[in-house]
Structure formats: structure tokens, C-alpha cells
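Q: what does this look like with zinc ion bound?
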Amino acid sequence: MSSLWEQRAARNEALFREVNENIARLEERHGTTETEPVYVCECADAVCTEQLAIEPETYRRVREEPRLFFMRPGHEDPQLERVVERHAGYLVVEKTGEAGRVAEQT
Ligand SMILES: [Zn+2]
């Protein structure tokens, strides 16, 4: 496995995390909505468009840790990350190795 590929995958995930941060900020500005905010899957696949319903408390708690990402079950890559939590409809994964370092720097 090339470390270049690993870095690119990590950057994709960081990009999706940025999208989700914008969603979270909008959510806070508009106050509570009836439906749960919908976030995007943060897996390494740049064309993945899966959506995740994440409880706001869980989102904020996980977001405080730069190595943690949300994704659809089955989208995790054991070479990049390990699953730390399983929820209904989504996983919380922790970046390992090079991907973890990139995630912390982005
Ligand atoms: Zn995905």
C-alpha cells in the first residue's frame, strides 16, 4: 500500500468532515429542527454520497477527537481505520497510522 494513496484517502475523509462541520454550524444557527441533521459519510471514497443521521450530542462528542470519523457500516477500510463505536446506521472509526497523522494536521 502506498503512503501517497493513504494520504489521499485521509484527505478525502477530512474534506467530508469539513462538509459536516458546515452542516453542524448551520444547524446551530437555525436552532433545533424537527428532524435530525443529516451528515455525509466520511469514508475514503470520494464519490460516496451516503447520508447519516447522527444525534447532535454524539456528533459533538466525536468531533472533539480529530482522529474519529463517521461512516456507513461496511465503508470502513481496515488499512486506514478501526471501528470504535457501532450505532444504528453508522459507525465511529478511529484513524490509524499515516491516516491518523494526516487527519490531525488537517
Ligand atoms: Zn461512504
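The chain has one domain: 3-105. Residues 27 and 49 are 20 Å apart (CA to CA).
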